[in-house]
Amino acid sequence: MRLPTLENLKGRLPAKGFRPRFALPLLRGPLRTLGPGSVASLLKIALDVAYVLLMLLTAGLLIAFVAAIFIPISNYNVTVTAHDGGLQQPLTQPLLLFGLGALTAWVGGFLLILRNLRLIFRTLTAGDPFRPENVRRLRAIGLTLATVTAGVWVAQGMVAAGLVPGQMDPQGFGELLTPIFSVLVVFVLAEVFREGARLRRESELTI
């Protein structure tokens, strides 16, 4: 039996640039960040799922808030714990309504933020991010985040001062640094998108 020589094998070797049939389609090109099938489209799906879940949670909290108005509350206590012990606080109807209302407003604020984020990522998935409406959406996100931050600060201060004095500390300025920084970043991004939309409009008029 004769072994095949190198000259005989040359005709059987695949040509240069041969790509096997089992190559994955996702590996044919670099991973895109914008457009259909990109990272933005995957994040858009995640935002859609989170938006639906948060909408269901908001609806459940609203139902609980309305039910707490008509259902009498009695003989219930809540325990507020601290480093040096705890405090037994009777669960009255005004206290329950305050807690449910504050929680509903907090979740509803993030629902509005997710709604605007979904619309922004819809334009990213379409490959057209610099639209004037995205500037308004980013500003709405910044205002909502600022309102939620201020509401949490006021609500925690009211609880610490009036409802459970000595058991809860109000928010300090250091705890507000991260939310304030986030609000400023969102407003800066809104200005970046506004400038991008202006440059795009000027280029279209030039063409």
TrEMBL record:
- Pfam families membership: DUF2975
Task: Spell out where the chain crosses the membrane.
Answer: 49-73, 93-114, 140-164, 176-193
UniProt key word Cell membrane: no
Q: Which UniProt keywords apply?
A: Membrane, Transmembrane, Transmembrane helix
The answer, when asked if Transmembrane helix is one of the entry's keywords, is yes
| Protein's recorded name | DUF2975 domain-containing protein
Organism of origin: Brevundimonas goettingensis
